[in-house]
Design a protein that fits this description.
Elements lengths: L1 E6 L3 H12 L4 E7 L5 H8 L3 E5 L7 H11 L4 E6 L4 H9 L4 E4 L4 H12 L4 E2 L1 H9 L7 H11 L4 H8 L3 H14 L5 H10 L4
Parallel strand pairs: 1-2, 1-3, 3-4, 4-5, 5-6
Helix pairs in contact: 2-3, 4-6, 7-9, 7-10, 8-9
Amino acid sequence: MIKVLLAEDMDMVRGALVALLSLESDIEVVAEVDSGDEILPAAKSTRPDVAVIDIDLPGKDGLTAATEIHEHLPECHTLILTSLGRPGTVRRALDAKVNGFLLKDAPSDKLANAVRSVAIGRRVIDSELALSAWEADDCPLTPRELEILALAARGRNVADIAADLFLSPGTVRNYLAASVTKLNARNRVHAIRIATDAEWL
């Protein structure tokens, strides 16, 4: 019997997923949680074989929770569910060493089979998600350019960013100008939008 922990914040969706998995004779849902903060404590108390985790959860996000499970309960495999197949999200999931990554609208038998595969150590990535990550452009910005653009996205002005990072205002302006140029953006606001949509920020 494969023991499953299910983390999903929408009650109706969680109930449907539990019902679907409960129809399988070899799968048992041993815990249900609705926030990321509850995942690790529930996993420690129930010791599931697989944690099926929605990527967007209140509290800790699904990828952070999956990383914690790998650190504290390496015998528990993780399967991430998402409704959006953005390339940046797929890459973050792979970086977080999740065992599986599946779209929420996948057929129900696909979910059960993914749980079975992940439980025995196989990696399962939805083909559409894998293709989107494969075709995505790499971020052209340096870590420092990303850091400064992220601060600008939070509303920090040049002087504030310079003070935060112990740089001169001129250096900060140069980094922002380089980001605009590399992203072929019209201006700083457009550069922030491009980087955000690509999930580089």
